[in-house]
Every structure is written in C-alpha cells, then in structure tokens.
Design goal:
The protein has seven helices and twelve strands. The chain has helices at about 80-85, 125-130, 135-140, 160-170, 190-195, 200-205, 220-235, and strands at about 5-15, 20-25, 35-45, 50-60, 70-75, 95-100, 115-120, 145-150, 175-180, 190, 215-220, 250-255. The chain has about 260 residues and is α/β, with parallel strands linked by helices. The protein folds into two domains: about 5-100, Elongation Factor Tu (Ef-tu), domain 3 (Beta Barrel), CATH 2.40.30.10; about 105-255, 3-Layer(aba) Sandwich (Rossmann fold). It has a six-stranded antiparallel beta sheet with strand order 4-3-6-1-2-5, with helices on one face. Flavin-adenine dinucleotide binds near residues 74, 82 and 254. Flavin-adenine dinucleotide binds next to strand 4, strand 5 and helix 1.
C-alpha cells in the first residue's frame, strides 16, 4: 500500500520527565491494530544548514477507537525527530505516514496461549498500553503480566493508566516494575534478562514462563531483546514466533 502523509494537529505535548513526553494529537488515522506504529515527520535544520524533513517510527499508545492519537517518546541527544517532536506545542502540526504498520499485535499471537508476558524497556511499553485498552487482550488470555524496566523510578510513566488496568482486571493482570539504577519500593532491581534467568520475575508474578502455555512479547532496546531471546531459548526452549513457524517469543526493536 502506498504511504500517504496526513497532517495531525497537536492537542497537547505533555512533559512527563526531563526527557519523556506524551504527544497527544488529532488526526484522521486509517483503521489500525493496537500495537502498530507509524512514521512521524518533522522539519529541522539538516547537516547542510537547510530546512529538511526527518521521519522516524513511533508506536501509538491510543487504542484504535480513541478520539485522539498519542505517542510516548523520549528525546535522544542530537536526535532530529525526537527533539523536533519535543519542541511541538498545542496547535502545531506534525506529519504522520498512513497506514499504520507492524506485526507486533495480538492477532499474531498463537491462539492457544494462556499467559501473556509483555516485557518492555523505556518507551517500549507503548504498544502494550494500546493493546491493553482493547477488549481482545482481556478476552483471550488467562493472565497478562506487564513488565516495565527503566533506569530510574520517575520514568515509570503511565502509572495511573496501569493502575486502572489492575483495578478493572484484578485476577488477570499483574504489573511488575523493574528499576535498574536505584532502589524503588515494589520494584525489582536489575535487568529483564537476568531477572528471567534467575527466576525473580516468575517468583514475583507467582507464574512460570514456559513454552507450554506462555507467550513472551519483547519491546524496547536491542540489548534487552537479544539477551532475553537467548535466555528464553537456552533455558526454556522458547523459539522466536514467525508466521510460517509458530513459536513463543515476539519482538519489536526500537533501536
Ligand atoms: C518500530 C519502531 C517503533 C518505535 N516507537 C517508538 C516510540 O513509541 N517511542 C520512542 O521514543 N521511540 C520509538 N522508536 C524509536 C524512534 O523511531 C527513534 O529512533 C528515536 O525517537 C530517535 O530518533 P531521532 O531522530 O531523535 O534520533 P536518531 O538520529 O534517529 O537516533 C540517534 C541515536 O539514538 C538511538 N536511539 C533511538 N531511540 C532511542 C531511545 N528511545 N533511547 C535511546 N537511544 C535511542 C539510535 O540508536 C541512534 O544511535 C521506535 C522505533 C521503531 C523501529
């Protein structure tokens, strides 16, 4: 399908931490599946000192039927698009490529899965928040365990929304925060791959990660994805899930 750029109007650009933002916008998005992403395009001064267009992919936090679109992002040093997005104010516009794309969606998860583990680092929690806003997530699985790993506790953004999921689905949903660089009450300390390897995540969830009834979704930085996949393969014989070869691990790499 050909890419079509549409113009979105910024409703609010909420600063969540010194480097995290929730960009809320109004746009005529084509129908999409929770978990999909689209490229956002801004104008910035390029290397040759001229105004140029720069685009990068961002996942949507909003569910497909919400009125406003929402993207959760962090700025990276010298990053053109992330800093361009951070500078947007209410009333500004941003270009969005349509349709949304991507296979990191619940319809790709094998039908017989009972327990869904959603592992994320940083802004990689975004696609899961969109999925958890849909009825499909709550109808299909017996247990959903959302794991959010961040360096500092103040980066555990979207706590209120996550708390809402826990209130609405107390027997089905568990949230496990992981903080690596400081102690935080109620959170595990360390990195996701090590916490899978030594069983701490399973102990906290009181649930096993196994190939018989679990599916693991991984979203975020390449280090977490690579190391988690290796441990799940070595320790649990859990293979990458492909369309033509069903497995137990699905992944979306942000960088
Ligand atoms: C499918 C997909 C979905 C994505 N969804 C999101 C999203 O919802 N929210 C979001 O914040 N980002 C998301 N990203 C990352 C995003 O597309 C950009 O790479 C990021 O915002 C940096 O863009 P930039 O133009 O500012 O910097 P660039 O010049 O493109 O990158 C500068 C450097 O920063 C590194 N980098 C990229 N992202 C990060 C990051 N988050 N933290 C630290 N370093 C990083 C890159 O590896 C590169 O070395 C997604 C990426 C992919 C592939």
């Amino acid at each position: 399908m050909a890419t079509n750029w549409i113009t979105a109007k910024v409703i609010e650009n909420r600063k969540l931490t010194d480097r995290h933002y929730a960009l809320i916008f109004e746009a005529e998005l084509l129908p999409f599946q929770a978990g999909q992403f689209a490229r956002l395009q801004i104008e910035a001064i390029g290397d040759e000192g001229k105004l140029e267009k720069f685009a990068n992919p961002y996942s949507f936090i909003n569910s497909p039927d919400e009125k406003y679109g929402e993207v959760y992002f962090n700025t990276v040093p010298d990053g053109k698009v992330s800093n361009g997005l951070a500078a947007l104010k209410a009333g500004d516009t941003v270009e969005i490529a349509q349709p949304c794309v991507g296979f990191f969606v619940l319809s790709q998860i094998p039908k017989d899965v009972k327990n869904l583990w959603m592992f994320s680092t940083g802004t990689g929690i975004g696609p899961y928040l969109s999925m958890l806003k849909t009825a499909d997530a709550w109808e299909r699985f017996e247990k959903i365990i959302l794991v959010h790993a961040v360096p500092y506790a103040n980066e555990l953004c979207y706590a209120e929304l996550i708390q809402q999921f826990a209130i609405e689905h107390p027997d089905k949903f568990q949230f496990i925060p992981v903080v690596s660089r400081e102690e935080h009450e109620g959170a595990l300390k360390g990195r996701i791959p090590a916490l899978i390897e030594d069983g701490d995540l399973e102990k906290k969830a009181n649930l096993k990660i196994n190939k018989e009834d679990s599916h693991v979704m991984l979203c975020g930085n390449s280090g977490m994805l690579k190391d988690s996949k290796a441990i799940l393969k070595e320790q649990r014989e859990m293979d990458r899930h492909l369309n033509h070869k069903p497995g137990h691990v699905s992944a979306e790499q942000y960088f």
